Amino acid sequence: MFRFVVHRLCWLARVPGLPQLFDTALLVWTRLAHPARLAAMQEIEKRALALPGVRLRVHRLGGIEFACGRRELGHLHGNGLLDLFVGREQRDALVASHSAEPHHVFTQSGWISFWVRTPADTVPALALLAMAADNS
Questions:
Q1: What is the DSSP string of the chain?
Q2: Where are the domains of the chain?
Q3: I need a surface site. Which of 30, 50, 103, 116 has the fewest CB within 10 A?
Q4: The domain defined by 2-134 carries CATH number 3.90.1150
Q5: DSSP assignment of 51-62, as one string?
Q6: What is the pTM of this model?
């Protein structure tokens, strides 16, 4: 459903508040169907604040944004999809090593996507977030 909405109904993102409402629905579903995933997501948010200069804010397209100064490092959607900007060179290396996927919308950019599915995904997600912070 997420892919369908993102790819086929992307124009809905321009409706004020709708992306946040959709992401809230994803978060509710994650809470009900995948509580371990939600716990991992919460741990990532908590531990991200320990990175120098990183703060959390609401993302314009829903989810939690990780920011450093005025720059967005990435964001975590309510279904556990973590999107991060790491630059083209690091993106290519991460995708080639299967450590991350190309961004789910901007496949040829310097953005990556990483699925947080279990608590075991917390450590690699935080490593990727630190990489994005180092890139800023």
A1: -HHHHHHHSGGGGGSTTHHHHHHHHHHHHHHHH-HHHHHHHHHHHHHHTTSTTEEEEE-TTSSEEEEETTEEEEEE-TTSEEEEE--HHHHHHHHHTTSSEE-SS-TTSSEEEEE--SGGGHHHHHHHHHHHHHT-
A2: 2-134
A3: 50
A4: yes
A5: STTEEEEE-TTS
A6: 0.90
